[in-house]
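Hi C.,

You asked whether I'd gotten around to modeling the 171-residue construct. I have! Everything is below, sequence then structure, no commentary in between.
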Amino acid sequence: MTLTKNKYYFEALDYFPYNMSECLDALNYALSYEPEDADSLCLMGRVYSEVLKDYETGKRYFEEAMQSNIGNVNTPKYYIECLLSNEDYEEAEKLIEYALKMKGIDKAEILNAKSLLLERKGEYKLAMEKLKEAKKFSFCRSSLEILEDREKLLQNKMPKTRMRKTKENVV
């Protein structure tokens, strides 16, 4: 059964997000063969959170995926994105802390998510620190460029400090 499930899962992944009708057909087949497959449940969560913007349903699928396979390194990234989009910041923070301890997870992506969380809370300095930390775990050019772009965006949001004119500065 696993081979058949994988075939349908990869078909669904291939169709996502451009051909949602075919994606959902393949994903439903994959889940009918193995209803507790973490990757298929995660992809279904992405369908609901990223495409349909139904974050609550997406969260249910992500939770089910995490329960099915707590060690799956694919699920936390997308689950965190869903939580941030739904403004569930406390849950996102807990999941980020857990994900950073997972063996094999892309720490640069998770630290970038932590930075985004801090930015949404208005904590720009801490967000910048997390971006710098994420750069240490970035091992490819495209990942590094994404982090550098986020850094520039964040710098533009940070309050500017101006020097006040005093008699000593003018002379």
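If it helps when you're writing up: The mean pLDDT is 93.

Thanks,
B.
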